[in-house]
Amino acid sequence: MQKLYANQLATQLQQGLAACYLIFGEEPLQKLEAIDAIRLAAKGQGYDERLSFTLDNQFDWSQLHNELGAMSLFAEKRLIELELNQKLPPTASDQLKQLASSLSPDIVLVLHGQRGFAEVSKLAWFKQLQQFAVQVAIYPLDDRQSRQWLQQRARQLQLQLTADAFNLLQHHSAGNLLAARQELEKLALTHPDQLIDADVLADFLADHSSFTVFQLGDAILAGEGPQAMHRLQRLLQQDLEPAIIVWQLQRDIQQLHQLQHDQQQGIALSQTYKQLAIWPKRQPLYQQALQRLSLSYLNYLLQELAAFDRLYKAGKLADITTALSHLVCLFLQPVPRTYSLQQHNDD
């Protein structure tokens, strides 16, 4: 059946409920709202009973199979939800494959989890069910999509935000849609019929931004200094291991180094992008970085990363946050080499 993105589900539900929904992805709010939308649609079509199960090592499969096999003569229409943990028990795959033969018109079955859609869609049980199911792929939003999501949600809540207020809200809540929704809902209660500018929002807003190391990499590649430093700060506040941040920086710099080298050798960038598995959506970010970082400067960055790694592992960095900020700043824009981690005294 259909494969949809989260924002396409409402249209499908208007056309009628499917027998099965497979909802997977790493962004929690979109997944939660997709499930809520199915619950509301099911309620409106007479599926008055809702049963929720969580698949773990102690899960009783007989209970689920009994519910799926209950005859409609003795049971109401039911919405049955099964949440899958990241790691499934050994017998789960065979049991999940059997669900396809248990579907009936009196039951809507929803399987959901936070495992990445691309990963879970390759599994045998998923392929067994997908011919009967609407598949909803949940992906984190990029900066442009996040801005559109904020604007749409503000309109739904009849909020009036200036462009500067949207910039501030996105800066503070990017990567955490649940926190952004909560802030917008509180704003709707406390600031109805009021034009909200950045100053008003700054007084109101708590910092809920949550990022991944990949989002930090994107901001650095794009040369967005304030955004990159903010994301670095938030990652460190989230107690992310510094070695993971350095791994991301090293990976991006090594890829840029190969792109810059190949380009100087007359090799088409498209060929190197393909070799490095850099997808078209991210290629403009690398192109921006290539325009400002020469091959010799990329060599210097790799040397600085090696110095950080050596000093960090030896426990000789007095201020890790300053050292990481130094690396990010070097990546954002070539600067005079007045300070270098390579000058650090190991003694």
Count the DSSP helices. 17
Q: What is the residue-mean pLDDT, rounded to a whole number? A: 89
Low-pLDDT stretches: none
Identify the CATH class of the largest domain.
Answer: Alpha Beta
Q: What best-fitting shape do the alpha-carbon axes yield? A: globular
Number of domains: 3
Structural class: alpha/beta
Main sheet properties: 6 strands, parallel
Q: Could you estimate the helical fraction of the residues in percent?
A: 40-55%
- Radius of gyration from the CA trace? 25 Å
- Strands of the widest sheet, in order across it, are 1-6-2-5-4-3
Question: Architecture of the largest domain, CATH level 2?
Answer: 3-Layer(aba) Sandwich
Number of strands: 8
* CATH superfamily caption of the largest domain: P-loop containing nucleotide triphosphate hydrolases
Separation, N- and C-terminal Cα atoms:
65 Å
Organism: Arsukibacterium tuosuense
Family: Belongs to the DNA polymerase HolA subunit family.
Pfam family, one: DNA_pol3_delta_C
Domain DNA polymerase III delta subunit-like C-terminal: 212-318
Summarize the topology.
Blueprint: E1 3-5, H1 9-14, E2 20-25, H2 28-44, E3 49-55, H3 61-69, E4 78-84, H4 92-97, E5 107-113, H5 117-120, H6 124-130, E6 133-138, H7 143-156, E7 160-161, H8 163-173, H9 177-190, E8 195-196, H10 198-204, H11 213-221, H12 225-237, H13 242-264, H14 269-275, H15 283-292, H16 295-313, H17 320-332
Parallel strand pairs: 1-6, 2-5, 2-6, 3-4, 4-5, 7-8
Helix pairs in contact: 7-8, 7-9, 8-10, 11-12, 11-13, 11-15, 12-17, 13-16, 13-17, 16-17
